[in-house]
Every structure is written in structure tokens, then in C-alpha cells.
């Protein structure tokens, strides 16, 4: 399998399994990734998702350029549409997604990380939207998600220059949430995932929806989105469980209902 899904408690781990080619994305890999994303969306036991790459060298090096060289112009267009749609489906999962960036994340690899909600970066990793050095532009969401995350000015500098971003800078500009030693990457990521997974899954889904949708509209509309999301949670069993657990001074046990 070019991508695997492992379940560890309430956490699902999607791993790109092509370390010999720096976990780059060909059409077969995208098809498997897309299938597994759909499985994760339907699996109520999975409350938080981690995305990472196999091996120590690469998280994801983006498009499989060897495959791309054999493509016609129409096939390239289909490939770009497929990778863009796959990342959007990952982004729209109704559960938090954390990128554990274990190595190189270049081009589409950075775009994959940008489609995640949170990013934890190894001290040995590098990121970068390097497409302009190849005569193209980021085509899987990079021109849209990067400026929304770090601001237009920084995003333009990074995309125009095509330079690689090392961990200290990535942290300082808000490209990643945390930087940790390589040997601590997965334990740190799992710890955060489990901390998040302890909370009510319906609340996590609505919080994600409210933030992602609300930031694309004016404040008044955003506040209405928040209000509607809150309203959906009032009648849930999990809301009542949260209140009962607080009153009884115990940890809540959420069922996602």
C-alpha cells in the first residue's frame, strides 16, 4: 500500500509509504489517500487524524515528477485537479487533522500540511512552496491556504522566492504550531492528538466548521455561523454529559451523540 491507515485508540494515522521516492504523490497514491480519507470520515471511532510520511527523510516531496514527465497536458490538468480535490477532502474532514512533518515537505508536501488543521515540525524538516522554480505555481491550494495562515506579504515572499523554510522560521511566522526534536515528533503529536480526542467529537467538528467557515466571511455572518453551530450542540447527549461530569467532578465520557 502506498498509504496506510492505522488506528490507535481514538487516533487515526495516515502514513505515506513511499520513502524510496521521498513520499511523492503519483496518481495511485492519491487514489489510495482519497479512499482512506473517506474511510476516516465515516469512522466514528476516529476522533483525531495524524498525517505523516514513512522514513526519516521526507514527509512528502509533492508531485511525482517522473510520472508527470510522461503525462499529456490533459493528464497534467487531471492530476492537479485530483491532488487539489484530495487535499480539500482532507481539510473538510469533520475532525481535527494534525500534520507530523518528519522531513522534507516541498511543493505539494507543504500544500498537504497546509490542508491540515495543525502542524508539528521536526527540527530536521524543511518546508517550501518551490513551484515557481519549476516554471509553475502551487496548484493544490498553496496560493490560497498559505496567505490565510501566515499573511499575504510573507506568503508572497515564500512563493516568489521558492526558498525552503527551516524550523525556526516556520515557527516564527506561524507556518507550524510547534517544532520538536526528530525523536520526539510522533510522541508529541500523539500526545496532542489524545488531548484533543478527550473532548466531545461533535463539539470539535462544529468548532472546526465555525472557524474555517467564519473566517471566509464578514464578522456579522461569522457570528451567525458560530451561533448556528452552537445551536446544533444544545440537544446533544455529549453536552449533557459534559455538564454532568463537571457537576460530579469526573472526566466526561463522550459518545459523539
From TrEMBL:
GO terms for biological process: fatty acid beta-oxidation. Keywords: Lyase. GO terms for molecular function: hydro-lyase activity. Pfam families: ECH_1. InterPro entries: ClpP/crotonase-like_dom_sf, Enoyl-CoA_hyd/isom_CS, Enoyl-CoA_hydra/iso, Enoyl-CoA_hydra_C. It comes from the Bacteria. Coiled coil: none annotated. Belongs to the enoyl-CoA hydratase/isomerase family. This is Enoyl-CoA hydratase/carnithine racemase.
